[in-house]
Write a structure and sequence with these properties.
- Strands 7-6-10-8-9 form a 5-stranded mixed sheet, with helices on one face. Strands 12-11-15-13-14 form a 5-stranded mixed sheet, covered by helices on one side. It has a 5-stranded mixed sheet with strand order 17-16-20-18-19.
- Strand 6 and strand 7 form a beta hairpin.
- The protein is of the alpha+beta class and about 525 residues long.
């Protein structure tokens, strides 16, 4: 395009010059050529940034295909010809955009893209051989009434880019019992829109939270109808019902199916009267099932596969190169598989003392056993001691680690979820506990029995119960009588219990108590007879 000159159709150049002088004097369009310093500054100044209210935060560029122009919107208009002229114009209360001495263009109610095109066409038809640029640089403020179930009903100022939920927030938020899914917007022309803040929040559906327009009235009713969804969905619970609610829309609202959900047999329970319900199984993956309508009080139950993709793991601790948790397949992975994956035993590992500990059948922790583990055996009552001894024996799975790692499939047991593989350091001592003079660790001597280690620990204490001495095998956790234990191995524990009162003294106490009771009876009878 040749921009070296332009003319106004139907006018002589002198008339054009006079018009431009008038426009410059009114402060509207700047001169389209070289001019005063003020005009030069106008030519070089960039278009103003989009102005908004102090509370407006834009989520991105204004979409000129959806934004509707109204009174108060401000525009920047730039005309290129021999020079450049820019000026601002505001949409009047009558809905018109006035370009002084040039054109008046009705724009209210038009899409921004349409308003910009109309204004450009009007200026280009007035001028010859020019280009026109139109930009929205200021958003109008509008008043919207928010009524009904909000904390502070009334009129609130916003912009046409504010969403309906933002005006609800400005009004103090929803009051107790208010609807969050059946909010209505009544437009100035009588049209209505439904606002579903739960759908907007849970699914990101922008249509469920539309922007406001001039003259809107937002009304928040009370929530009166509800539906329920339980089972394998992301957000089970009670939801307010909306008109046209279906199984598919409710499942979507609840975050969709969870892991292991059985979608082809969703149970729908509906009321047939005020107290009785009937149920049906629905394929929620199919169009017909997903479109099944729901009424007030209906319940949806989404089943789940039992233990679907349940993580199974074991823990390896102690003398391996890489201790820690390891995933397994129950019924497939063996003890040696996991130890090899853990890098194998270290040079200090004692496979003879290694143990495989299995959790309780119900998978929960045995808090009583864990408490007793932190106690000295001498501090336990007889009942606690018996429980600890039995649980200690039961928790250990008898495995010969040396043979298992050597390829003996009979010892290389299959692992179960929650198993603990404990491989201690090599030990060279036998521990003597209980009623001995010097409890503690004694260096192991090959072939020696429990009596040797008790002597090395100073011998029996004064209240030792010698006939009930036990040996706890370090490799298996089994409890055996000392006299049947034979030669001890490193890591074994000798337990010498405390002797209780002899049976003779128990008999004496019982006889004394019996005689005392007889004497009491005699005295009472004698006094009664004398009276």
């Amino acid at each position: 395009m040749d921009r070296s000159f332009f003319t106004v159709r139907g006018f002589q150049p002198v008339v054009v010059l006079v018009m431009l002088v008038v426009l410059a004097a009114t402060g509207a369009p700047g001169a389209l050529g070289a001019g005063t310093d003020g005009e030069s500054a106008l030519e070089e100044a960039p278009a103003p940034a989009l102005a908004a209210t102090s509370e407006t935060v834009l989520q991105g560029p204004v979409d000129d295909m959806t934004y509707i122009v109204g009174p108060g919107d401000r525009f920047s208009i730039t005309v290129w010809g021999q020079g450049v002229a820019s000026y601002l114009a505001t949409v009047t209360p009558e809905g018109e955009l006035v370009v002084p001495s040039v054109a008046t263009v009705p724009v209210a109610g038009r899409l921004l893209s349409e308003a910009k095109a109309d204004l450009a066409r009007s200026l280009e038809s007035f001028y010859h051989d020019v280009e026109v640029s139109v930009s929205l640089v200021g958003l109008r403020s509008i008043l919207v009434n928010v009524l009904g179930g909000v904390e502070v009903p009334g009129g609130y100022v916003g912009t046409v880019l504010d969403l309906a939920g933002e005006l609800v927030r400005k009004s103090g938020g929803l009051s107790e019992g208010a609807s969050s899914r059946n909010i209505t917007i009544t437009r100035r022309n009588g049209d209505t829109r439904r606002v579903d803040l739960v759908r907007y929040r849970n699914t990101g559906d922008v249509d469920a939270n539309p922007p406001i327009l001039d003259g809107d009235v937002i009304f928040v009713p009370h929530a009166v109808e509800f539906v329920h969804i339980e089972g394998a969905v992301a957000r089970p619970g009670r939801y307010e019902r909306v008109e046209g609610e279906t199984i598919g829309s409710l499942i979507e609202l609840a975050g969709g199916f969870a892991r292991g959900a059985v979608a082809d047999s969703v149970e729908v329970r509906q009321f047939v009267n005020d107290s009785e319900t009937r149920y049906a199984l629905v394929d929620a993956d199919g169009p017909a099932g997903a479109e099944t309508g729901l009424g007030d009080g209906d319940q949806v139950y989404v089943r789940a596969l039992n233990e679907w993709r349940r993580p199974t793991r074991v823990e390896v601790e102690g003398e391996v190169k890489h201790p820690g948790p390891y995933g397994i397949n129950e019924g497939t992975d063996r003890l040696s598989d996991v130890i090899h994956r853990a890098g194998g035993p270290t040079d200090e590992a004692s496979l003879e003392d290694a143990r495989l500990v299995r959790t309780l059948p119900w998978g929960g922790p045995d808090e009583e056993f864990e408490r007793l583990q932190r106690m000295a055996v001498s501090e336990m009552s007889d009942v606690e001691y018996d429980y600890f001894r039995n649980r200690f024996r039961d928790r250990g799975v008898v495995v010969d680690f040396v043979r298992a790692l050597g390829g003996d499939t009979g010892e290389d047991v299959l692992l179960m979820d929650g198993d603990l593989i404990a491989i201690p350091k090599t030990t060279t001592t036998v521990e003597v506990m209980g009623q001995v003079k010097n409890p503690g660790e004694v260096d192991h001597v090959a072939g020696k029995r429990s009596s040797y280690y008790i002597r090395e620990a100073g011998g029996y204490g004064s209240v030792a119960r010698k006939g009930r001495v036990r040996v706890i095998r370090g490799s298996t956790g089994r409890w055996v009588y000392a006299r049947a234990a034979g030669a001890l191995s490193p890591g074994d524990i000798i337990w010498v219990p405390e002797r209780g009162e002899t049976d003779l003294w128990k008999v004496i106490r019982e006889v004394v108590a019996f005689l005392t009771s007889l004497a009491t009876i005699y005295i009472v009878v004698d006094q009664a007879t004398t009276s």
